[in-house]
Design goal:
By secondary structure, the protein is mainly α. The protein is built from 17 helices and no strands. The protein has helices at about 5-10, 15-40, 45-75, 75-100, 105-130, 140-190, 210-220, 225-255, 260-280, 285-300, 300-305, 310-340, 340-355, 360-375, 375-395, 400, 410. The protein is globular.
Length: about 425
């Protein structure tokens, strides 16, 4: 293979197969994110319908994220992911056909969104637990960086492809495109072979509720996880609405409308790609400390967008924010995988998805309520300032600053050895 291909893809055939399927699947998801509002509008849903369908897709995380983590630790994670892909393939196929034939309506799209979100809730904890079994310990960080690259690439290419698909085949055809990506992902997973732990006989397994409680105990026993779960919640509720809800509202008066906002969004995507490429080679000794510092930079986005600066300086700062966001998420996930035992990993990761993805509707509601009282300009500054305070609070946690690398991460990391006696 060419030397430009990252070493983790050359050396890790299992991960190469997983990466290939997920690259296309994430791209399909990003296309659907753009297309979904137009699909709802095309069936007469209006702005209220768009909100209802969008929220319906996230709500299953609140109910299913923790049980999904338990199942991913008890069962074959790969099979769970295949089942999730199969369900999401069916949902997007049905949605596409209904839209193309003129039989779709808002109630049907809401039901399909709920089913899609439920399947997605089972996929995410499973893939976090599966990745370490597809690479050697030393390749875990670059593997997560490449997973981040799929999201960064999808964020840039997805809207462009989605716009072309809407013009050529409409929302229905775009949903069918996403269905095909899930089919490809399922096939790559079926071809994937990963080592499995010895199966525990059913009569010897702890009760489901006992496993659920053990997952909670695993989280509580690690202060650095608790700190980052709080940080993830704050970022989702306080910072993300500034980007996805209030930013577009302000774009008309401050950034020249949709064109200026597209430039800012693209700049963030470029920064994200740069951060992913950086993490392919740079392995900080204290990954979680660097992740927490990067969260400070990521949390500045609300203040940057609401600062009153023009499109060009905001776009330049968003490049830096993109780097910070990628470093924050990739090193956080790597730290989980390096330090949490495999048998508990999906359960612990499920708390991350619950407090991040599951909190997205809450953030949107908070942004809307503050905007109604204070106006968009003041609301974005208030939310941004609160998010920044939360990020600084995480860096102040000793367990976050002192956590060293684990599971082979320290073997390749640069910098001084961690001080003796630092807890892992």
């Amino acid at each position: 293979m060419p030397t430009l291909v990252p070493a983790v893809l050359r050396n890790e055939p299992r991960f190469r197969r997983l990466f290939t399927g997920q690259l296309l699947s994430v791209l399909g998801d990003r296309v659907t994110m753009l297309v979904l509002p137009f699909a709802v509008l095309s069936v007469g849903g209006g702005s209220v319908g768009v909100v209802v369908v969008s929220v319906a897709q996230f709500l299953p995380f609140v109910l299913l994220a923790l049980p999904a983590g338990v199942l991913a630790d008890r069962l074959d994670r790969r099979r769970i992911m295949v089942a999730s892909d199969a369900v999401r393939f069916a949902v997007q196929l049905v949605a596409g056909v209904l839209l193309l034939t003129g039989h779709a309506g808002v109630p049907l799209l809401v039901v399909l969104a709920v089913v899609f979100g439920a399947a997605d809730a089972f996929f995410q904890p499973a893939i976090t637990g599966l990745v370490p079994s597809t690479v050697s310990p030393a390749d875990l960080q670059p593997a997560n960086a490449l997973r981040g690259l799929t999201h960064s690439f999808g964020s840039i290419a997805g809207p462009a492809i989605g716009g072309v698909l809407i013009a050529l085949v409409g929302p229905g055809g775009s949903f069918l495109f996403d269905a095909v990506t899930f089919a490809v992902s399922a096939v790559t997973l079926l071809l994937l072979r990963v080592p499995r732990a010895a199966a525990v006989p059913a009569h010897e397994r702890p009760h489901f509720l006992a496993d659920l409680a053990a997952g909670a105990a695993s989280v509580r026993s690690r202060p650095w996880i608790l700190a980052f779960l709080a940080a993830g919640s704050a970022y989702t509720v306080l910072v993300l609405p500034a980007i996805f809800v209030l930013g577009p509202v302000l774009s008309g008066e401050r950034f020249g409308g949709a064109t200026g906002w597209a430039v800012i969004t693209a700049a963030f995507g470029v920064g994200s790609l740069a951060g992913d490429l950086l993490l392919l080679r740079w392995r900080p000794r204290f990954a979680l400390r660097v992740s927490a510092i990067a969260l400070i930079g990521a949390s500045c986005q609300g203040l940057v967008i609401g600062s009153g600066l023009g499109t060009a300086p905001v776009a330049a700062l968003e490049v830096l924010a993109g780097v910070c966001v990628t470093v924050y998420f990739s090193l956080w996930e790597t730290s989980l995988q390096e330090h949490v035992p495999d048998a508990e990993l999906s359960r612990v990761a499920s708390y991350d998805y619950l407090t991040s993805t599951g909190a997205i509707p809450l953030g949107s509601v908070a942004a809307g309520a503050l905007t109604a009282v204070l106006g968009a300009g003041s609301a974005i500054l208030l939310l941004g300032a609160a998010g920044l305070v939360a990020a600084f609070a995480v860096v102040a946690v000793p367990a976050v600053r002192r956590l060293p690398r684990g599971r082979g991460g320290a073997a390749e990391a640069l910098g001084p050895e961690p001080p003796p006696g630092v807890p892992a």
